[in-house]
Amino acid sequence: MSAGFDVNRIDDVIHGRIRLGIVSYLSTVEAADFNELKALLETTAGNLSVHLRKLEEAGYVTVKKSFLSRKSLTRAQITKTGRAAFLAYLNEVRALVDSHSIKKPELPSAAAQGQGRRRA
Questions:
Q1: Which of 19, 26, 41, 83 has the least CB density, counted as fewest CB within 10 Å?
Q2: What angle do CA 24, 28, 32 make, to 5 degrees?
Q3: CB-based contact 52:32 (threshold 8 Å)
Q4: Of the ranges 4-8, 54-58, 109-113, which one carries the lowest mean pLDDT score?
Q5: Residue range 69-108, pLDDT digits in tens
Q6: What is the C-alpha to C-alpha distance for residues 3 and 57, in angstroms, rounded to an integer?
Q7: How are strands ordered across the β-sheet holding 61-68?
Q8: Taking a C-beta distance cutoff of 8 angstroms, is the pair 78, 32 a contact?
Q9: Which fold has domain 7-95?
Q10: pLDDT one-digit tens code per residue, 44-74
Q11: Cα–Cα–Cα angle for 80, 77, 84, nearest 5°?
C-alpha cells in the first residue's frame, strides 16, 4: 500500500452500506421520498430512519416532513456539506484502490485459444 493512504480518512458516517446507498442516490437526484429510498435500498423503515438520522446529525442530508392528503411525506435531500463529504469519500476509496498494484492478467492470443486452427 502507498504510504500516502490512511484508512482513517474514510468517512465512517458514509461508509456503512445503507448510508452509502442513501448518499450515493441523493447525489444523483434533487430529493427522494422515504418510501423510494426504502424500496431502493431494500431495508426496513426503522433501519432507514436510523441511518437518515445519523446522516442528518452529521449535516450530510436534510429531512423534511410534511403532509399530502393527510398522509405523512418524508423527503431527504443531500446538503452541500454532504456532497463535499461524499466526493471526499470517493477520493479516499479511489486512493485505496489505486494503492494496490494489481496487474491485469495477460490474455492468451487468438491462436493459443484455438481461433487460428483450420476446420477439417
A1: 83
A2: 85
A3: no
A4: 109-113
A5: 888 899 999 999 999 999 999 998 888 888 776 666 677 7
A6: 32
A7: 32-33, 71-78, 61-68
A8: no
A9: Arc Repressor Mutant, subunit A (1.10.10)
A10: 999 999 999 999 999 999 999 998 888 889 9
A11: 25
Compute φ and ψ for 75, nearest 5 degrees: -125, 140
Q: Beta partners for 65?
A: 74
- Please name the residues in contact with 109: beta carbons below 8 A apart, sequence gap of 6 or more: none
Contact of 106 with 28, CB cutoff 8 Å: no
Q: In whole angstroms, how far apart are CA 42 and each of 26, 34, 36, 45, 47?
A: 16, 12, 10, 10, 10
Separation in Å, CA 13 to CA 45, 48, 58, 91, 119: 19, 14, 8, 15, 60
The pTM assigned to this predicted structure is: 0.76
> CA 97, 48, 31: angle at the middle one, nearest 5?
80
